[in-house]
Specification:
heterodimer; A: alpha+beta; 4-stranded antiparallel β-sheet; B: mainly alpha; two-stranded antiparallel sheet
Chain lengths: ~210, ~180
């Protein structure tokens, strides 16, 4: 099958991602693969603005992005990072088709596949296994958020930073520190002190940077 | 001067700035203070001093550019480089301006700096520049006049200003890369 304008290797990323969450039927997979179009954004482009309704769900092929909260008092929180292979976008706004409370922006130049709510919902409605894919995917998201709540409430700043470096050692060389600090809920000065300590102790090598 | 496509110039400057950001993140944001503050062999500026020098200019220019871009609503797809803009860009671009340029005393950064903050501020400013270059696609690069740091009476059009700023960034990025090579 030929997917117009979409590279075969990009569809392979999508298929792997789906199979890791919930293996859907052959028919559902065929239809699911036919609804995506390529999308590219440069560094620091706002893809979804708070107040707008998320029209698309994304498959991240390359680059790092963040979903973040920002209010009129200039308070900001990075809620999550997305990078390949994962889905991207403001998920609650997409599924509920209600205005997003969060922004979605690229932190590095990024490549995606994306599809609209209308197309995605049509496949969900036609295939039971596609519906199961969404519920399994959401359960995974809830697990991740619960894990993150524990980390935020129980762990010291240093533990949180070391945990992040262990999980994603490459992120230090791709993403500016201020976004990592914002994700971990550490202020910029403390973050730079902690990084200084890790650098002085010669510990970065441990994380294979 | 020959008129050229504003979009082409902005795309090229955006790509160059993207490269500067990647270098700063990959090479310098994870370096310790000792490396960032080490003087260049022969006693030249440290990496932190090179970046602080750029931050000083960025602090002035990116703020003024944003203000003046917001005020001026005219749009043009064409950019006409001026003689003055070409002269400054050529002088600052490390590929064409080989001569050493003397720095104004107020832009000569001290050797003792908070190196981590300097790198973070540099990355923040370059992200800001990237946004400005993108927003400038819907502006008139010829009509918006930016007062220079030399004198508020010497003004350069927005296109010229972007070009000499990115050439200046490139010059000191290369200098900083030579400190530890």
């Amino acid at each position: 099958m030929i997917y117009f304008g979409v590279m075969i290797q990009d569809i392979a990323v999508l298929k792997n991602l789906i199979n890791q969450i919930y293996p859907i039927s052959v028919e559902a997979m065929e239809e699911m693969c036919s609804i995506w179009t390529p999308f590219h954004a440069g560094r620091k482009e706002l893809i979804t603005r708070a107040g707008d309704t998320e029209r698309y769900i994304y498959v991240v092929l390359d680059g790092v992005q963040r979903v973040y909260y920002h209010d009129e008092q200039d308070r900001e929180a990075t809620i999550l990072f997305t990078y390949t292979p994962s889905f991207g976008g403001v998920l609650d706004s997409f599924l509920l088709q209600s205005p997003s409370r969060y922004h979605y922006e690229t932190l590095t130049p990024s490549h995606f596949l994306r599809t609209s709510h209308v197309q995605f919902s049509a496949v969900r409605a036609r295939h039971h296994s596609a519906e199961r894919l969404v519920s399994h995917g959401l359960a995974g998201v809830i697990s991740g958020l619960q894990e993150r709540l524990v980390e935020i409430q129980c762990f010291s700043s240093e533990d949180k930073l070391r945990g992040l470096l262990k999980r994603s050692p490459h992120i230090l060389q791709i993403v500016p520190h201020k976004y990592l600090a914002s994700y971990l809920g550490i202020d910029a000065t403390n973050f730079s002190k902690l990084m200084g300590k890790i650098l002085r102790d010669g510990d970065l090598g441990k994380y294979q940077v | 001067m020959t008129a050229i496509s504003a979009k082409d110039v902005l795309n090229r400057l955006e790509q160059q700035t993207e490269g500067h950001i990647q270098t700063a993140i990959r090479l310098w944001q994870n370096m310790d203070d000792a490396q960032l503050l080490a003087p260049a062999p022969g006693g030249g500026w440290s990496i932190a001093q090179c970046l602080e020098h750029l931050n000083g200019y960025g602090h002035y220019y990116y703020t003024v550019i944003r203000q003046l871009m917001e005020r001026n609503k005219s749009v043009s797809e064409i950019y006409k480089p001026t003689w003055l803009g070409n002269y400054f860009t050529k002088m600052l671009d490390p590929d064409s301006g080989k001569r050493k340029i003397r720095t104004f005393p107020k832009h000569n950064p001290p050797p003792s700096l908070n190196a981590q903050l300097v790198v973070a501020e540099f990355i923040r400013q370059q992200e800001d520049l990237l946004t400005l270059l993108r927003e400038a696609r819907n502006k008139n690069l010829n009509a918006i006049k930016i007062p220079t740091t030399l004198s508020k009476w010497i003004r350069m059009n927005l296109g010229d200003t972007f070009r000499f700023l990115v050439a200046h960034n490139e010059r000191h990025m290369r200098q900083a890369k030579r400190v530890i090579s």
